[in-house]
Design brief:
Length: 159
Amino acid sequence: MHCLDHKLNLVVTDFCTSEKAAVTCFNTVEALYHHYSKPAEHMRLRLIQNALGIKMKELNSLSSTRWSCRYKNCEAKISNFGAISSALEEEISENADKDAIEAKGVYASLMTGEFVVCLFVLKDILQKVYILSRYFQKIGATLGRAATFISGFLADTTL
């Protein structure tokens, strides 16, 4: 079953690197990671998350070979969207250093309707694929069980 998981990974990775909307969305996700990998910006985000009572989900770098990090990144951006936008707004309004220029660019990308819709759609699709992938990695998985699982999964799922 690991071959099926690998093939699924290749298909998702190809989609995420060839579909224009997905590429734009993941470029923004990666820009957010890069911006918040700086200690001062990361601390600002943590403080705002705490003030808003948002459970911290780390913003991670994207992997070019493992798509599951893309699902987890979409999930983290959605659950932290309010804190992220507030932290960027605060940084932009302070305009204290050169990072404020970067924050303006990231904020502009983050607040587009295309990014928000794409983020939610990609998260939903990648979550479903993540469930399939986890099934394919099970030790007892067989081709027959996988076919049954996929049929049932697709019948219960609306994309």
